[in-house]
């Protein structure tokens, strides 16, 4: 049995679509017994933000993809985390990422790759989506499949440029983000239990 752990979802959302992804990821994380989920808008770089992220066992990064890359606001957060990096404050935490763009492709992989590299520089352990591709991967695929956009590194979503956040991303994309949050929470719990077992063995 383990004490509860925290999954922090650190995200920026320009128009509200990525915020819906963030909420879905948090819902997935908190669906796992023993896990708390927190949402953090990284446009506000406060001491409280850094303290919350420092106290979490896992951080899920989220950003829209603009012009083939993460948003300027998320990049500002990533660069500001250099102070944490200097002390290796996030080393051995669990990490994952999600992104949204107007295009079906939209070069979303570049954003997820940037997030994974950010996590690697911090010494974090990256959790992949862990799903096979859906939708157009097979002739009988459906648009409501999990991982309908066929990503592997993280959760991808697509929101038409003329659709508001009340109607996009699609339910399938939100369920994919929820799956990622749940997977991160389960992984973080396993790591926490493993660390406690090792600490107990070392103390004997």
UniProtKB/TrEMBL annotation:
Taxonomic lineage is:
Bacteria, Bacillati, Actinomycetota, Actinomycetes, Streptosporangiales
Instruction: Please name one Pfam family that this protein belongs to.
Output: FMN_red
InterPro entries xrefs: Flavodoxin/NO_synth, Flavoprotein-like_sf, FMN_Rdtase-like_dom
The segment(s) forming the Flavodoxin-like domain are: 7-185
Top-level taxon of the source organism: Bacteria
Q: Extract one GO molecular function annotation from the record.
A: NAD(P)H dehydrogenase (quinone) activity
The UniProt entry's GO CC annotations, sorted and at most eight, read: membrane
Native organism is Planobispora takensis
* Name assigned to this protein: FMN reductase
